């Protein structure tokens, strides 16, 4: 047993400063934790949240999930309900079956002579076709607003689709003075379905030009311009068969298809640029847009 000496020593005494003392305590703590970990005292595993099920798109060439978008399953379901749009309950073959902005009407529920600032006005919209018949399904794209031209003020309301040809909207009164209700049919439900169809399709609405350059006979240079477009997945090729050259963009990973040049090989692509635009609408669909 070693006992402390009672004799005075001439050796210099080293005193720890508060900062040095703290550092020494931290070093000792880390040392102890390291020994504990080596002995199996600590097991650290990286937390990995459960991956939600993937939800297929209408386009079978790709899928998307809530996990890929970085949102919860609840938020995903809410978004799906928000973008859900009713469709006609029958095939539209005549123009007069579409929603008419002339024959559709709206009315103010419980109209009063005056209102207080902060109150809401309830509006009911009734959709009719060009035969003046009531629509039996929803899907029309209506916009409703309250405005004052003198004040240059306006406020929009959220239009609620009741899936039976009627819609409701509440408009807030945020200012004093006169106010008018304005309702506009942006697109009929029939036109909305056309827009949705082409939005989800791989129809090449925009075409591009591919520029190929390479050596020719007698030390000449050959240039060829062919039509190109983006490859829309395995089932959405712009062209079928062995017709084209494929090029993958290194930065974006996008795969491009270009018609095979007649004289040059596929590896002679220099660049691509915008080309012609193509309207995908057939004559009947074009008429629906003008109704």
* SSE order, one letter for each helix or strand: HEEHHEEEEEEEHEEEEEH
Low-confidence stretches: 1-22, 37-62
CATH topology of the domain at 95-186: Immunoglobulin-like
| Rg, Cα atoms, Å | 35 Å
Approximate shape: elongated
SS content category: alpha+beta
Task: Quote the beta fraction.
Answer: 25-35%
Main sheet record? 5 strands, antiparallel
Question: Could you name the CATH homologous superfamily of the domain at 95-186?
Answer: Immunoglobulins
Quaternary structure annotation? single chain
Mean pLDDT: 76
The largest beta-sheet arranges its strands as 12-13-11-10-14
CATH class of the domain at 95-186: Mainly Beta
CATH architecture of the domain at 95-186: Sandwich
What's the number of extended β-strand segments? 14
Approximate helicity band:
10-25%
Separation of termini?
Answer: 106 Å
In DSSP terms, counting alpha (H) and pi (I) runs of 4 or more, how many helices?
Answer: 5
Protein name: NXPE family member 3-like
Keywords: Membrane, Transmembrane, Transmembrane helix
Transmembrane segments: 20-38
Organism: Carassius auratus
Care to describe what's here?
By secondary structure, the chain is α+β, with helices and mostly antiparallel strands. Among the domains are: 55-84, no CATH class; 95-186, Immunoglobulins (Immunoglobulin-like, Sandwich), CATH 2.60.40; 206-277, no CATH class. 19% of the residues lie in helices and 29% in strands. The chain is built from five helices and 14 strands. The chain has helices at 18-38, 66-69, 73-83, 189-199, 283-290; strands at residues 55-56, 63-64, 105-108, 120-126, 141-148, 153-157, 159-161, 166-172, 180-187, 206-215, 221-230, 244-248, 255-259, 269-277. The strands form four sheets. Strands 12-13-11-10-14 form a five-stranded antiparallel beta sheet, with no helix packed on it. Strand 1 (55-56) and strand 2 form a beta hairpin. The longest helix has 21 residues, at 18-38. It is elongated. The N and C termini lie far apart (106 Å).
């Amino acid at each position: 047993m070693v006992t402390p000496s009672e004799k005075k020593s001439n050796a210099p005494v080293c005193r720890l400063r508060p900062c040095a003392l703290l550092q020494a305590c931290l070093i000792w703590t880390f040392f102890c934790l390291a020994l504990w970990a080596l002995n199996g005292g600590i097991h650290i595993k990286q937390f990995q949240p459960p991956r939600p099920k993937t939800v297929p798109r209408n386009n079978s060439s790709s899928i998307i999930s809530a996990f890929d978008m970085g949102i919860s399953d609840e938020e995903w379901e809410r978004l799906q309900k928000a973008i859900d749009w009713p469709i006609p309950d029958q095939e539209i073959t005549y123009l007069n079956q579409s929603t008419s902005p002339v024959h559709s009407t709206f009315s103010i529920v419980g109209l009063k002579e005056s209102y207080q600032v902060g109150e809401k006005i309830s509006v009911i919209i009734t959709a009719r076709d060009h035969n003046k018949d009531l629509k039996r399904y929803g899907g029309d794209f209506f916009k409703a607003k309250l405005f004052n031209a003198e004040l240059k003020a306006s406020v929009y309301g959220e239009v609620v689709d009741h899936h039976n040809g009627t819609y409701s909207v509440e408009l807030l009164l945020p200012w004093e003075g006169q106010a008018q209700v304005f309702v506009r049919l942006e697109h009929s439900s029939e036109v909305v379905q056309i827009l949705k169809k082409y939005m989800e399709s791989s129809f090449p609405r925009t075409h591009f030009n591919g520029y190929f350059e390479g050596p020719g006979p007698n030390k000449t240079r050959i240039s060829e311009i062919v039509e190109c477009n983006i490859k829309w997945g395995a089932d959405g090729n712009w062209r079928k068969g062995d017709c084209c050259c494929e090029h993958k963009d290194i930065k974006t990973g996008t795969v491009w298809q270009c018609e095979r040049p007649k004289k040059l090989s596929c590896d002679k692509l220099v660049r691509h640029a915008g080309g012609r635009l193509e309207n995908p609408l057939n004559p009947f669909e074009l008429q629906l847009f003008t109704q």
